[in-house]
Design brief:
The complex is a heterodimer of chains A (about 350) and B (about 270). In chain A, about 60% of the residues lie in helices and about 15% in strands. Chain A is an alpha+beta fold. Chain A folds into two domains: about 150 residues, no CATH class; about 180 residues, Heat Shock Protein 90. Chain B folds into two domains: about 150 residues, Response regulator (Rossmann fold), CATH 3.40.50.2300; about 100 residues, OB fold (Dihydrolipoamide Acetyltransferase, E2P), CATH 2.40.50. The longest helix of chain B has 21 residues. The mean pLDDT of chain B is about 85. Classes of the chains: A alpha+beta (about 350), B alpha/beta (about 270).
Chain lengths: ~350, ~270
Amino acid sequence: MSRIDWDDMLRHFVQVLAFCLVIATVQYGFQPDKPYGPLVVYSLFIGTSIWAIIDIGRGFFPSSVETGWPLGLSGLLLVAGGIIGGWFVGNHVGDYVCKMYGLYQPGTAPADPAADLRSSVLVTLLAGCAGSYYFYSANRSRYFERKMSEARKHMDEARLKLLETQLEPHMLFNTLANLRALISVDPARAQQMLDHMIAYLRATLNASRATSHSLQAEFDRLQDYLELMAIRMGSRLKFHLDLPGALSQQKVPTLLLQPLVENAIQHGLEPKVGDGEVRVTARRDGADLVIEVCDTGVGLSGLSPANGKGFGMSQVRERLATLYGDRASIEFANNESGGCRVVIRYPAEA
Amino acid sequence: MTATPLAPIALIAEDEPLLAQALQAELARAWPGLQVAAIVGDGESAVTKALELQPDVLFFDIRMPGQSGIDAAAQLADEWPDGKPFPALVFITAYDQYAVQAFEAQAVDYLLKPVQPARLAKTVSKIQDALGKRGASGDIESTLGPALDQLRALIGKVPEVAKAATLNVLQVGVGNNIRMVPVEEVLYFEAADKYVRVLTEAHEFLIRTPLKDLLPQLDAQRFWQIHRAIVVRADAIESVSRDESGKMHLTLRGRADKLAVSRLYAHLFKAM
């Protein structure tokens, strides 16, 4: 610990004072024949001495990030040292203060000094341990709470980022603009478009919940997206989805192909003057499933990062790597005929 | 001055057919006197059609195939014939934060998709105002000057690629080899179809990196864009001359080529 947190210190100090008063009061409850004053004085001085030794002392040891307490044995030794040292210092100062202010009434000298000593040591030991444990676990639970809220924040951020890439605002507003235009000229088609959009939005919003679904479901989502784009781009866009019936129930990570198809449109066909086509095919190659996304767009240009445009692409790569390790692969290349081809390969289910 | 104030002509450049039709329909309601002469779907056709029709108003979508609406407008400003007032420009975008910020800063008129009738009405009255004033003073200088200023400011502010590290050496594919060409040997770059020509004193190379991707990687102090397709190393320029029509040309040290400077960048060359 490199610096002392004064707010924390003050908070601890006040808590210690309150704890000492409670102990003095409990002791008084057991021995109502003795004067309350000295009990409070000793309790306060012993308690604060222990606290001071431990709380200041822990700054001199390397402490754990979790709790702010010294690690291992040094932590225990510090507590033991604090209790013993605190008891001597506190008693000494307590004696001095009591005498100075005449808190001992004449005639109340201890009847049994040995018993008093025993109870004083016992109370100090118990209270010292209890107090230390209290602060230790309070620190710990605060640490875990902090960690938890950090983790939650990270997760929220990641989810938000994913959502932002998926619900690309440009795509969203252009689609809405098309819908607005269709409503007056062709209400039936507008309704159709809205249905595709609803399915697309629902799938996108749900994607972070389920980790995988069937290839059929994946191709259905691609269909929704491509239908939307076909309305927007008019005759410029043609698409083919080719999923053999035998493969329709194979598993695929949810919306794995979506960013690939979106890239084909956004970076391949939309910038291209004239017509274009997107083709998605799935086939089986031995023990592997092979999925290809081909477009006839402008292709990858010389310097652009060929192996992953932005968040979408690196996300596809990462998901494949986490799920299948070396057994999955993804390749990007320009087609001979222009446009881009992405080939994904991962182990099929039996 | 030649434009008949009764029937102003508009050109719409928008790649999504439904949106182009919808804008035309909304315009018919908001400005019945406006005649939409043509609708085009990409940046290149936008320039060609605009030069051919010489409209009074342009509605340019930002994201279009071929080239962006802003690039198309810049090219148009460059090639616009003398003696004809430059059209009023309105950009359209679905969602481009940077573009909208730049438009606000430069007081360029723009529409957000979906286009709302109330917002369109505002734009229409602004254009009508501008056309009215133009009728009074109406020459190319008073209309093109402000348009050029706006476009100059927009071109830098609507980034298409993030700022990249400065490039010191070009890696040029020559046959099966890669040749390393230090950028300080380059006299100029010229965009040519799918390639960029790299010209040094003795050689000419081709690279596939588009000029607009290359530009952010060059030191802006040393390499000046003088035309939408040409970037010159400033200390390789020997002289700048202006011909009788007002067009600027550069001569270079070490090469006989004469390079045309476009209107958009003519302001870079002034005697000290």
